[in-house]
Specification:
273 residues, alpha/beta, Rossmann fold, seven-stranded mixed beta sheet, two-stranded antiparallel ribbon, 9 strands, 37% helix, elongated
């Protein structure tokens, strides 16, 4: 006989001391199984099918091993849109939405070309397209597996004007061809203590050899590829703002500005060629 739903609610409560959000996340997972809101809210009994029991067992096995809920669901929300995610790509972070909002505030038109470096799931490029489908967007990533996920999301959202290319940084761009370069590149040191909390996410999307290496490589290539007056924007670690500012200044950029994220931390730096 299959376990009833109350068993899994009890199991979740027994794990709350080590996993404080497990009950909330279990309820979110149950919604993906199309269990009714009333049953979930009341934590009522519910006869589970064999398939549902197997999925719930897999949920607890993965969750208790530290796998993020987004990977378990193969879904993450960004800018109000649903994106497919798995361990080939980083999970989109809410603070990255401010990059999209900043881009949408610029005076860009159908003749403008946007270049995203290190696209991962493609959520930034696709979200920009969904908000303004006249823009031409080229997005690259060195990781072939990450681009497979980006293509899934492109097809999911019919993002026709977004092109994904496997390339190291801006290697496929032409001189004076871009209006805007966007990047949220790997910027953690290989020994950063925060990595222990991110051990299910792809390491190559998180770390750079000396933290700031990615910013220098992208900035030095983008100054060649941007049109005169073109813009560049980086998302970076909250303690890296001055370092990124100095890199941009050394590469010849002007009008360099750093802005803050939702928590009031220095998170984004943008500049003009």
């Amino acid at each position: 006989m299959n376990q009833g739903l109350k068993y899994y609610f009890s199991l979740a409560r027994s794990k709350e001391s080590q996993h404080q959000n497990i009950l909330r996340d279990l309820k979110y997972f149950l919604k993906s199984l199309e269990v009714s809101n009333a049953v979930i809210t009341l934590e009522d009994e519910y006869d589970l099918s064999t398939e549902e029991v197997l999925k719930l067992d897999d949920f607890f096995s993965s969750y208790l091993a530290g796998m993020p809920l987004d990977y378990i669901l193969n879904e993450s929300e960004f800018m109000g849109y649903k994106f497919f995610v798995d361990s080939r790509v980083l999970i989109p972070r809410p603070e990255t939405e401010l990059i999209v909002e900043w881009v949408l505030g610029l005076s860009l038109n159908k003749n403008s070309t946007i270049f995203e470096v290190g696209t991962g799931s493609g959520c930034i490029a696709i979200s920009i397209y969904l908000k303004n489908n006249e823009l031409k967007i080229l997005a690259t990533d060195l990781s072939g597996p990450a681009l497979e996920v980006a293509q899934i999301n492109k097809d999911l959202h019919n993002a026709h004007n977004v092109t994904f290319v496997q390339s190291n940084w801006l290697g496929c761009s032409l001189k004076n061809s871009l209006d805007l370069v966007i990047s949220n590149p790997p910027y953690l040191q290989p020994d950063d203590p925060h990595l222990s909390d991110l051990n299910h996410e792809p390491l190559m999307a998180l770390t750079a050899e000396n933290g700031s290496q990615s910013f220098f490589q992208i900035a030095s290539q983008a100054i060649y590829s941007l049109k005169i007056g073109g813009r560049i924007i980086f998302e970076h670690g909250y303690s890296q703002a001055q370092e990124v500012y100095d890199i941009l200044e050394d590469c010849g950029y002007k009008n360099i500005v750093t802005s803050k994220d939702f928590q009031g931390l220095d998170r984004y730096t943008y500049a003009n060629k």
